[in-house]
Amino acid sequence: MRWRAHRRYWRFNLLSIAVLMALGFLVSFVIPLAAPALTQVRFAGFSLPFYLGAQGAILIYVGLIVVYIVLMQRADRTLQRAFNADAAAAAAAAVPTAARGN
């Protein structure tokens, strides 16, 4: 049971990292390539490429970090519950043997 929980945990971790890195790549490289086409789009009174270059990209990176922290805290709690359930099952299986005096 423990190894299944570990495999799910690491699969979720790798998938989360891949998705968040893809979003970071999109913000870092794809949007700047499309900057000339986005100059007409306004955000907070500035053209979108200027805003993303000056502030937006940094805010998005911080947001990606916060999302990763929240996701991994949830995954850590899930893994800890699986470990606790496994330990409780092992302890419950060991109690009858110890009670018989074996």
Folded structure, characterized:
- This protein has 102 residues and is mainly α.
- The chain has one domain (2-89).
- Helices cover 82% and strands 4% of the residues.
- It is built from 2 helices and 2 strands.
- The chain has helices at residues 2-33, 48-99, and strands spanning 42-43, 46-47.
- A two-stranded antiparallel ribbon has the order 1-2.
- Strand 1 and strand 2 (46-47) form a beta hairpin.
- The chain starts with a helix and ends with a helix.
Characterize the biggest β-sheet: 2 strands, antiparallel
Question: Can you tell me the overall shape?
Answer: rod-shaped
Helical content class: over 70%
Number of helices: 2
Strand order in the largest sheet: 1-2
* Uncertain ranges: none
Measured between the Cα atoms of the first and last residue, the distance is 26 Å
Structural class: mainly alpha
Order of helices and strands: HEEH
Features of this protein?
mainly alpha; two-stranded antiparallel ribbon; rod-shaped; 102 residues
